[in-house]
Amino acid sequence: MSALAEFLVAAAVVTGGLFLLLGAVGLARFPDFYTRLHAPTKASTLGVGGMLIAAIVDAFARGEPSVRELLVALFIFVGAPVSAALLATAAFHVKLRSVAPLPQGVTDTALDAGRRAPERDAR
After folding, report:
1. How far is CA 57 from CA 19, 25, 68, 75, 119, in A?
2. CA-based end-to-end distance of the chain
3. What is the mean pLDDT of each successive set of 10 residues along the chain, which is 123 residues long?
4. Structural domain count, the chain
5. What's the whole-model pTM score?
6. CA distance readout (Å), 82 to 20, 42, 58, 78, 86
7. Ramachandran quadrant class, 20 (left: phi over 0; alpha: psi -120 to 50; beta: rest)
8. Is 120 a member of any domain?
9. Is residue 123 domain-resident?
10. Residue 118 lies in a domain
């Protein structure tokens, strides 16, 4: 394998690993379900994409076809966003609320209606 191919493989693996690390940190640190769902879905897709680019470059450098890697990339890039959308839709339908407390003056009923709760007279 040439030095250029080795450099490209190493760069793709490091970049993919950083995206995977960022997704894991986002999963651990974000406060509610929806942001926890968003971070690993986007970052892991990019992270696995980096790993697949490294595998494709390695296969081309060795003179082997990389049909498997292309199929895995297709399934990852189609499957991850679809599964995240289905999880978010299911959470919305069961009215999964944020782990963080609601702001003052906002109730679950107001969230369902898409507006703020009426202000109460503070006499």
Report:
1. 19, 28, 13, 19, 61
2. 79
3. 90 93 86 81 86 90 85 87 86 67 59 53 53
4. 1
5. 0.67
6. 19, 12, 29, 7, 6
7. alpha
8. no
9. no
10. no
